Amino acid sequence: MAAIGSQARRDRIVQLANTTGLASVEELSRLFDVTASTIRRDLAKLTTNGQLARTYGGAMALTAHPEASLRQRTGEAYEAKRDIARWAAAQVQAGESLLLDAGSTVGALAHELRTARKVTVATTGLTALQELSDVETIHVECLGGTLRPLSQGFVGPLTEAALERMTFDRVFLGTDGVSHEHGICEADLRQTRLKELMARKAEHVYVLAHAAKLGRRPFHAWATLPPGWTLVTDTSADSASVEALRAKGVEVVLAEPLEASPVPARSPDAPVTDDVAD
Known about the structure:
- The protein folds into two domains: 6-61, Arc Repressor Mutant, subunit A (Orthogonal Bundle); 70-255, Rossmann fold (3-Layer(aba) Sandwich).
- It is 35% helix and 23% strand.
- It has helices at residues 6-20, 25-32, 36-48, 70-74, 78-90, 104-112, 126-132, 157-163, 189-200, 239-247, and strands spanning 22-24, 52-55, 58-61, 97-100, 119-123, 138-142, 146-148, 153-155, 168-173, 177-179, 183-186, 202-208, 221-223, 230-234, 251-255.
- This is DeoR/GlpR transcriptional regulator.
């Protein structure tokens, strides 16, 4: 490409990011025939101006779908998240080591785990930490790092370094979207990289996502999971989305709602008693 002015180059970078979703320093440096340092200065200025979002090694387009905060997401699909969390908690066996992601649905799972015994829980999420911090029968490990205020989760090299020294029986991941073509979606490439690392560290991989997230692609950052992972969703899930995921080798579980225990009917001939314990 012929040399162009700095403003024209920045305008072109924004256009490319909006088209492809992601722009890397190396690719842009080659495309515009300028140094990597020049591109980094361009990206820094565009980020400061609110035109791009920085990532490791480049920048990505600002999404048309603003990322909701954890507080906003907690009240969404409450009953579905509760059903998903209960099913997930029922899979946990005594003595197991668990890895919990950040997010509202995984936070609901942490609440269900409060009655678990003799398990170890490592987590990147503040919600799980708050739920389990006072449970004496659960050993809790915090995978610290850089805190993302919106997701209330830790990301970055410190979190990844801690993961390199650990393995788990089960990992439970949250997500902003699920696609049979791409995997699971997040707002930040640091999140998707971390989820891929987490998935490689556990024998059993579960993604907890209520039905509205199936087929949803709100952002441009994706995590590809190892074969054989399990999606746990609710019974309102679209059948076409479920079958598309199963065709890709994903095990899909539809968590049933918890039904109230039936009250035994009294025989009309049974004597009436006061139901008072002796």
